[in-house]
């Protein structure tokens, strides 16, 4: 095999690893709303979980892998890094995802929001020192998240069946396809050349570390849940549906986050009244 072929294969493997790593990181992010949901909301999104038996096994495996692999690293990072520094890191990681937001704003036919997100990226990447400081928010350019899962939902695609993938976290069919497209079309990743570059390796590691540390309160909240699996499924479903309603302008249909906390002994199903 020629050196050129070997180099191409190494680069292809690097891209796959980079994609898997980003998928894991973005999956961890799905835990972020759980802490809030565990305290404030009862299930309001009907569960479509035909693979519940498989998903429960995958969830147990995922939590075990997190306990022995990611959690110790994240806790060590949190122990030696002051919170203000971690916040700067989070800001920089978020900034690198802004171009993907721009793509989805364009696909949703929202040129003004796309322009604002583009401006945010330019301002924070320059004045904000590579995104370490969110200067744009102080210029009345707040964050506007978007992804392909939201774009599919914006055009009427239903969530499909729920599935849990270890280290990737909760998903549904719509968001799983969307997440794959998010990774494949990531402009920063395309320009940087994937994980085969030093930048790509650093971005992958920092992203996973930052997202896991940010989601740590959610993991702790799960310890008090009578059924952590259902808590994750319910919180994820409500979060994603609310995220899509934000895109469609149906903000008035957001879940009632002031509702009483759910009954800890409630059954697994979370029926929609």
From TrEMBL:
PROSITE patterns xrefs: TAT
Family annotation (InterPro entries): MlaA (IPR007428), TAT_signal (IPR006311)
Signal peptide: 1-37
Lineage: Bacteria, Pseudomonadati, Pseudomonadota, Alphaproteobacteria, Caulobacterales
One Pfam family, short name: MlaA
GO biological process: intermembrane phospholipid transfer
Keywords: Lipoprotein, Signal
Comp. bias regions, Pro residues: 258-273
GO CC list: membrane
Region of interest: Disordered: 250-273
Organism the protein comes from: Caulobacter segnis (strain ATCC 21756 / DSM 7131 / JCM 7823 / NBRC 15250 / LMG 17158 / TK0059)
Family membership: Belongs to the MlaA family.
Name this protein carries in UniProt: VacJ family lipoprotein
